[in-house]
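Retro notes, item 3 of 5
We never archived the inputs for the 6-O-phosphono-alpha-D-glucopyranose complex last cycle. Fixing that now. Sequence and ligand:
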Amino acid sequence: MSLKVVIIGGGSSYTPEIIEGFIKRHRHFPVSTITLVDIDAGKEKLEIVGQFARRMIKKAGVPIELEWTIDRKEALIGADFVTTQIRVGGLSAREKDERIPLSHGVIGQETNGAGGIFKALRTIPVLMDICHDIQNICPDAWLINFTNPAGIVTEALLKYSPHRKVIGVCNIPFNMKNSVAEMMNCKAEEVQIEFVGMNHFVFGKRVWIKGEDMTDLVLDKLIHQKVDYSPANIVSLGWSKEFLQALGMLPNPYHQYYFQRDTVLVKDLQAFEENGTRAEVVRKVEKELFIQYRKEELNEKPKELENRGGAYYSDAACSLMESIYNNRGDIQTVNTLNNGSIPDLPHDAVIEVNAVITRDGPQPLTVGPLPPSVKGIILQMKAFEELVIRAARSGEYTHLYQAMVMNPLVQNEGVARQLVDELLEAHKEFLPQFN
Ligand code: G6P
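Structure as it came back at the time:
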């Protein structure tokens, strides 16, 4: 039986990670064809990654056909799963998302604040197009989206695209689970975290180990051991005892932008002067990775890929596809429609939540009302996300300005205007809806 996966953005340096994921799971998730797709500008990288992926498959001895193309429509024929890992405008666009806010004394981050808004504006229309193609060419295929800002993009698609079989995934919940396992000296499979919130703004509300509620103990360890579960792109500042005790939940690494904003800004400005922005660091990491990927003798994922913040995303993505394929009914953390799981949020809002995974997709578990400590900020963040989606679709200056000024990392009417104007100009090539 054929089982085809199409990876859009297949020339990404991350691809060997997902190829390894398919190889590892081949017994239960017998992918027969993988098609890597990229755009013309990414042809050279696509070829290098394609050749390398073939060597990985050959070394593993699994019967997977791997091909690559820049013809997206052709690639989608017969697809069962489509994954998207694209960066519209490439690393130079990311660099602008990071540099321009920093130059105005505001956090410059690719998924949060001003940078995240513009990444969403560039990405949503492209993903909408991809969904139209999927709907026309392979309507039964599931789209697994990792393209950032993953929560906002997934919500835009689930609300407005013709294709509804869309699920967003991120490595953050997965990393949090693994770190708790490390902290508590147990296996990751023995840890269950109940999540509440949205992508890159999710809290670990309760933690169970082997079915026992260990939230307090885990928080205590976090306070005393100063454990760092940040991905490579975030330098953790650690959390104070007072904050963790008051919160009573596990924060995720991206929360530092909101709850340690000024300190992070000082740290980021310093890093910016020393090494440039994260985009520039990533450019160097990628250069090194591609030197390796070119080597004929390389046939396994190199360790250096762990220097990317998204390391291990393939575990989240491949386990999800495997569960859908096998109708497993297990629980995984995904970005999907709220559908009443959190009564304080709209039914059609996308949240990051534990869900039962079957061949019909994710069914979110009930989280219940938002904890009072984070209710206000979660409602504000969700309203902000809605404003971003509206701006991405309408191309209206006022909608965009509203989203910018209401973001907790900006919240300054003058600065918001400058950021909107400068970023619109810097990215105009990739923002046709605003031209
Ligand atoms: C984290 C996030 C991902 C993000 C990545 C960036 O892991 O969860 O959503 O894409 O970091 O990593 P990079 O190496 O590109 O800075």
